[in-house]
Amino acid sequence: MRVLGIETSCDETGVAIYDGEQGLLGHCVHSQIALHAEYGGVVPELASRDHVRKTLPLIGQLLRETGLGRGEIDAVAYTAGPGLVGALLVGAAIGRTLAWGWGVPALAVHHMEGHLLAPMLEAQAPAFPFVALLVSGGHTQLVQVDGVGRYRMLGESLDDAAGEAFDKTAKLLGLPYPGGPELARLARQGDPGRFRFPRPMTDRPGLDFSFSGLKTFALNTLREVCAADRDEEAELRDRADIARAFEDAVVDTLAIKCRRAVRESGARTLVLAGGVSANRRLRERIQEIMAGEGGRAYYPRPEFCTDNGAMIAYAGWQRLRAGEHEALAFGARPRWPMEELAAV
Ligand code: KG4
Ligand code: ZN
Q1: Of 164, 165, 275, 331, whose CB neighbour count within 10 A is largest?
Q2: What is the number of structural domains in the chain?
Q3: Ligand 1 mean position to 324 CA, how many Å?
Q4: SS3 7
Q5: In the predicted model, is pLDDT for residue 232 greater than 90?
Q6: What is residue 200's DSSP assignment?
């Protein structure tokens, strides 16, 4: 069975075709970075309009590249939430219309389930059960995963998501959107010994997170040290050192909670997914932690950490083969708890 996947929940248009026997046949992503850059962040209305312009041509390109005709697609999966409602509605309308026109089932996919299953696209795929750390721009969640659709939330962020904290701190440091990867790049030049930021909520039991205080800590540190600087070079060094201290704090906090979750659940496998899982230092740290626990960490290739159509096609395929498909009425869900999903 072959599934076309469509992702339009935020600032990437992603499309892909997943085949149950042959694996991923192709995927294309159009990034809206250039569109939102001058505003310093995602402008929801511009995002929706760009998805309207790009989604169908991208599907046309994907069909040409894979050499597949319309009759060779067995289902259309689209991201139905969570995300920006206007952006979601574009993917939903296009996905549902194509499915209806082609006479095949449509599948409403949960964006975070897509992220969570993305490591399954790799040759070395994790086996259930496992603990997953989902770290994106909108979510930071530790989840006990016993199978597709069998999710139990172990902990989550009480305020900013890890990606959001990266983006906001990057902005304070004068870095362009999208801030996360820019901050990580700057941190590489930073001195890890100069500042030490707190590791929020690691001094008490539990698996929840709180990242909003870190950006305030970064801002206060920046104000303090920059006031004493005399030249541009010193200021540049301050920013790099602050970026490094911030990244170390986020990575360390996530790693401490991952180790705690793995110890509490007895899991030997940890899956890392979502945009922030592209962060090199986080990947290395989680790998070390899992090696120390006698287990293993799995994560997607960097292009499947951030938003893409492949993870939606794959999650859709999992649900299609379990016999799921949607009735004719449809909608999008800007908020959608993952625990509401049906077990497969
Ligand atoms: O999963 P994703 O593409 O979109 C959402 O579902 O939110 O995640 C985007 C988030 C952004 O906050 C971005 O700054 C962050 O992932 N991100 C990173 C890196 N690459 C992307 N954060 C830190 N280091 C990176 N290398
Ligand atoms: Zn995402």
Answers
A1: 165
A2: 2
A3: 30
A4: strand
A5: no
A6: T
